[in-house]
Amino acid sequence: MACYGVTNIALSFVNKDLAQSGEVEIPPLLLAQCVATVVLMKLMAPAAKGEPRALRAFSQRMLIASPAALLYAVQHYTRMKTFVLAAVDVVLVARQLVPILCFAIERATGTEDNPQTTKSLACMGCIIAGVAVYARGKAEASDRGTSEAATTFAWTLALHLASTSVANVYTKHVCQRMHASQYTLAVNLVSIPIFLYSSRRHLVPAPGFGSLGGRAKGLAALSVVLSVGISLAASMTQKRIDSASFAVFSNVLKIATIVLSSVLDKDTSVTATSWVGIGAAFAGSYFYSKFRQDPNNAPTGRKAKSRTS
C-alpha cells in the first residue's frame, strides 16, 4: 500500500510537469509506459504453456480487453491534456463525479445490479454540491486564461470523466472474472498498437528521445518507471484489501496530493471556499462507497448483489 501511495502521488506531479513543459509528446510517453508495463509483467509472470486451451484463453482476454484498452487510451491521454491547462487538484476533485456517472450509465443501460438507497442518493447530492462549491472557489481565484482555453479544458475534462466512467462500468460487468494482473496485462498489450498508431507522426520525423533536454529525459524516464510501479502496486494492493477499502485509500491519496500540490506547486491555488467543496465532495464519496458496500443498506424487498468498483 505504501508503494502504491508513493508512486500514485509522485506520478501525478511528474506527469503534470511533463505535460506543461511541452517537451515530451503525450502519445509516445504513454506508449513507453505500456511497453514497459507489459515487459515487466511478462518477466514476473510464470511462463505460459503453448497449449491450445491456454492460447484460446489468452486470445479471449485480448478480445475482451480491447474496448477497455481504447477507453484507457482516451482516459490517460485526456488526463495528460488537462494538466496542460489546470493544476492537479482540478482533475482529482472532478473525478469524484465518476461514481455518479457510472450510476447514470448503468441506469441507462439497464445493468444496475445494486439499486441506490436514500443514503447513497444523498451522498451523490453531497458530491455534486461539493464539486460545485469547489468550482466556484476556483473561478473566484482564477484570473488567467481565455474563454477558448476554458472551453477546451472543459471538453477535455468531460471526455476524461466519460471515458473513465464507461471503462469502470465495462470492467465491472464484462471483465470482472479476469484476474487483476491478467486484466492489467491485457489492457496494456492492446493499448500498445493504439498508442503506436497515435505516435506515428512523432516517432518517424522527430529525432526522438535523444533530442530531449536532460531534465525532460529524466522526467520521461521517471514517468515510465512510476507508471510500471503503480500498475504492479495496484494489483498487489487489490489482492490484500477489498474494493471499498481500496476506494477509500485512493481518495486519501487524492487529498494528500491536493495538499502537497497546494504547498509545493506555485500554480495551485486552493481558496477557503474550494477547501469546503473538497471536504464535502470527498466526504460524500467516502460515505457513498461505504453505503454501497454495506449489505445492511440494501433496499428492502430486493436482494442487492455485491458491488465491485
From TrEMBL:
Membrane keyword on record: yes
Subcellular location: Membrane
Membrane topology per record: Multi-pass membrane protein
Record's GO cellular component terms: membrane
Main location: membrane
Transmembrane residue ranges: 83-105, 117-137, 183-199, 219-237, 244-264, 270-288
Keyword Membrane: yes
Name of this chain's protein: Sugar phosphate transporter domain-containing protein
Species per Swiss-Prot/TrEMBL record: Chloropicon primus
